[in-house]
Amino acid sequence: MSSLRQHALVQYAILVAASLLSYGGALYGTFVFDDSAAIVKNMDVRNVATPLHDLLRHDFWGNNLSDPTSHKSFRPLTVLSYQLENRLLGLNAGHMKKVNLALHTIVCLLVLRLYQTVWRETGSFRTAFWAAFVFTVHPVHTEAVVGIVGRADLLAAVGYITILLLYQRWLLSERRRYGVIVFATLFILTVASMLFKETGITALAACGAIDLLKRVNWRHIRLSDVFQTHRACLVRVFTLAILSLILLILRLWIMNFESPKFHRMDNPVGATNSTTTRILSQSYLYWLNAYLLICPDWLSFDWALGSVPLVESIFDGRLVLIVLFYGTVATLALRSCESKSKEIAISLTLSFIPFLPACGFVRVGFVIAERLLYLPSVGFCYLLAVGYRRLIKRSVVFYIPLCFLCTMFILKTQSRAYEWTSEDLLFRSAIRVCPGNAKVYYNIARLATDQGDRDTAFTYYRHAIELHPDYEAAHMNLGNLYREVHELDTAERHLRKAIEIHEPFPSAWMNLGIVQAARKDHQAALASYQRALELKPNYANCLYNLGNLYIDKQNSSMALRYWREAIQQNPRHSKAWANILALYDNRGRTDDIIRTSALALTYLPNDTAILFTRANAYGKLGEYETAEMLYRQIIAARPDHAVYRANLGVLYHRWGQRNEQAIEQYRAALRIDPNLRSAKTNLLKLMDSS
């Protein structure tokens, strides 16, 4: 093996080790933040039988692209990767994070190869290696690597860098043959990269820009001579531009040429009506993104609402930072014109082009998204390494701050990756960074609600509303909390406030209907549910609650109709299945219970409530062995539930000659819940009879 090959393998090994060192300690935990909506609750992921043609009609979150509320984020190949992983390994956050880390490591190796291909290194300082090392351990990548939804960025990056590498290797070949095949291959790979994430669409533009920068010496050529001197290069760039335009039209066609509708609070910059404010604020965001790359200490899972106040005046002190940003970029651009190597110009190109989808020309649903800095950091890291190389040429002492920087990046990445292992750590970490962000407090309150900590939930929802009085989701959830503690008047006031802020809010209308139904105001509740269904016709939860309303009105046939509609919209709606089975049970329709529960279990195979009703039905039919098997399955899943053991005791009691087993189950139930009256009564009857 040649020494050159050995040296390359050592570099690759170091990058793999650095990747494992940075993220290896955080490959556990749960699904956090966007993972829940994109993976856990996404039927395209959970239903492993979902065909590809259905994925091509849905957005990243599982909603129809034609739905007015869809964000139009079309990433079917990424969703397919989740679905395949679910099919093979199940929905396991740890496994999914390991896959993400493997993809990040592959990207790091590809990045090193890209640097080595684009730039020919000279001198003792290995610029490509140091740049790739900084890329590998950069803390701003944590969200993309440890946040499972970041897989879209990782897969798009694999495709993006592969496209750049293939194009550069083709240009470096002695005989540039098979041009049509090469461009067709690049086009197909770019389509695939785009179907992983939208940023992949910029790959061909990056290829053309680098080609122009490397081959045209703009300092010593007149524009009139460019076409004659560099005809082949310009033809290639023109071809890439046409292919990019085709891809852009294809992407817009997928969106039905409609812009996604985002809430104002998600991105106040994009929603402002003032051109001056939009330009100044967007420019400040450019500086802030650059700052996160330079000093990635200020990291947050969300930057909405009050995180970044708008720059509304030229007298705002942040204008100095905007001028500094543009001045630095202009200086670097001018220096790149003077440099023979064109390293600076190409690094800036690799930074800016993949950032174009988020630059503000098209309205997006976020203020800052750290995941989107994953690809732009490829150019930034090389630019940083070039700067250190120039310092080290002056004195090797500058190796010390470079090594210190890499060490600090590793430690920060380890710390940040740990914060991404649970929602509680993640949400609370954002308070330090974005103390004015009402969404941070909202998410802490939402998590506290799920954990049964109502006091914390009340405190943080109220704080979110103090920070942002027009936060309709916080008003709605606070109203739901008040409903749970039976303060129905206060609950209704907050829900009506949510609707007043944002009238087309189907969840708020549905929850208002629930409060009104609890107060037995059936007509008002019906009107609220109907409004929710006008806004969201396929709203399974609302259909379920409408069924509950009709049960309250003693109209079981209408209740059954709406519960069935709820299941049609969401076959995994366990409460709707349970209510249908309970209704059949009350009517003594045992055969219908057997048939319906069998269908329900195809969607919810481990739902203990459905299994319990099914077991009871088999017991009533005298099929004791089947009922016993079902009870055993339920108890294995929920060994701490006394009622299940008590009912198994009842089954043995009815079975005959099984009194000892019945006594054993009653006693087991009472050990779990000593106050379970039915188990006490039945145990005494058995003891007396024996």
Outline of the structure:
The protein is mainly alpha-helical and about 700 residues long. About 70% of the residues lie in helices and about 0% in strands.
Topology:
Blueprint: H1 3-23, H2 34-40, H3 43-46, H4 52-55, H5 76-89, H6 93-118, H7 127-137, H8 142-146, H9 151-172, H10 179-196, H11 203-215, H12 223-229, H13 231-254, H14 268-271, H15 275-294, H16 319-338, H17 343-352, H18 376-394, H19 399-419, H20 423-433, H21 438-450, H22 454-467, H23 472-484, H24 488-501, H25 506-518, H26 522-535, H27 540-552, H28 556-569, H29 574-586, H30 590-603, H31 608-620, H32 624-637, H33 642-655, H34 659-672, H35 677-689
Helix pairs in contact: 1-6, 1-7, 1-19, 6-7, 6-9, 7-18, 9-10, 9-11, 10-13, 11-13, 11-17, 15-16, 16-17, 17-18, 20-21, 21-22, 22-23, 23-24, 23-25, 24-25, 25-26, 25-27, 26-27, 27-28, 28-29, 29-30, 29-31, 30-31, 31-32, 32-33, 33-34, 33-35, 34-35
Characterize the structure shown.
The protein is mostly helical and 690 residues long. Helix content is 70%, strand content 0%. The chain contains 35 helices and no strands. The chain has helices spanning 3-23, 34-40, 43-46, 52-55, 76-89, 93-118, 127-137, 142-146, 151-172, 179-196, 203-215, 223-229, 231-254, 268-271, 275-294, 319-338, 343-352, 376-394, 399-419, 423-433, 438-450, 454-467, 472-484, 488-501, 506-518, 522-535, 540-552, 556-569, 574-586, 590-603, 608-620, 624-637, 642-655, 659-672, 677-689. Helix 7 (127-137) crosses helix 18 (376-394) and helix 32 packs antiparallel against helix 33. The longest helix is centred in the first third of the chain and has 26 residues, at 93-118. It is elongated, with a radius of gyration of 30 Å. It starts with a helix and ends with a helix.
